[in-house]
Amino acid sequence: MDKGTQNTNINAQKVVYVERDFNGTINIMQPQRIDPEEATQSYEVGEPYEEQGDYESAAESYEKALEEQKVTTGRRSDDVARVHNTLGITYWRLARYKDAIAQFNNALVIYRANGELETNLGVAMVNNNLGVVYDAQGEYGQALEWHLEALAVKEKALGTEHPSTAGSYLGIANVYYAQGEYGQALEWHKKALAVKEKVLGKEHPDTAASYNNIGAVYDAQGEYGKALGWHKKALAVKEKVLGKEHPDTAASYLGIANVYDAQGEYGKAPGWHKKALAVREKVLGKEHPDTAMSYNNIANVYDAQGEYGKALGWHKKALAVKEKVLGKEHPDTAASYNNIAAVYDVQGEYEEAKRYYKKALAIYTRVFDESHPDVQMVRGNLALLDAARGSSAPG
Fold first, then answer.
1. How far apart are CA 67 and CA 102, in angstroms?
2. What pTM, to 2 d.p., does this model score?
3. The pLDDT of residue 18 is above 80
């Protein structure tokens, strides 16, 4: 299950980082599985850690697997490239973006040496994943270039009506979405949808993912009726095909909740958030990053309703999971620091608010460039806090 994040206004004068999850929003491409006879024990150990959301342990296993695979199949084999790519994906999940780029580039060198460049799907896979990492860093120009390079290879090797080609349409849509160019994002999402409906059918989970993504764009544009319609269309497919207790179905519950949040229908939103949470706790466990995301989203509903004590409790519950699973230097952990700061801020507890904003900012400035939207967001929150304190100080 893929996930994305978005900023939204929760408090009237603050931009608060709110995590959102739309199935299929991030199109990271996993390599084909290594032949079991060629895969090393460390590689096999790493996969369950990845599924559990224990990315640190997964990275340790894949690092060992990389050295083992070089001995088993040779340093320039496609299997070694696959481990580089898998390790890069895990580093991306940990927000170790420079390390992820290094691994993807290592994979790219091998794939380019081992196959015809214009039709090499290994090259296309790595190009795509480089696009995802640059997108995460807010380097949208580079992200778009890598996604377009991936698309060129796929269209030549697979044609324009292949699900993997549709995946590149999705990657391009994501870059436009991140920049707020919703018209362009919608156009590319609909290109992806047309391929999926024709090739996979209207009742396939990947087609449902496109329904979700289109719903997300309409939500961002404030067209809530259309957004809700698309999210419910996605949900109908997922409940039928995957069942009500699947993480991807939970993503649709969340998409519907987000629309109600945006409309200020706080009586309806919590029920959908809690449906998503119930599935995640049952299927993924209470210490999974996606479960922490649900804790965060429930907190935001209470925040919007002015129930700040409850909001703070849920935000701190999310933070505890993120610090344990993702670590204290991850941008998602910084998001929780920012959200906790915002709750303290609105209650007039300025010292606590400033402390948490600074914790968030310290992480963001280590991970991202100064121009990144999340860095600018927290700097803006700190400036608003200082301005509020100044205006409330005795004359």
1. 16
2. 0.85
3. no
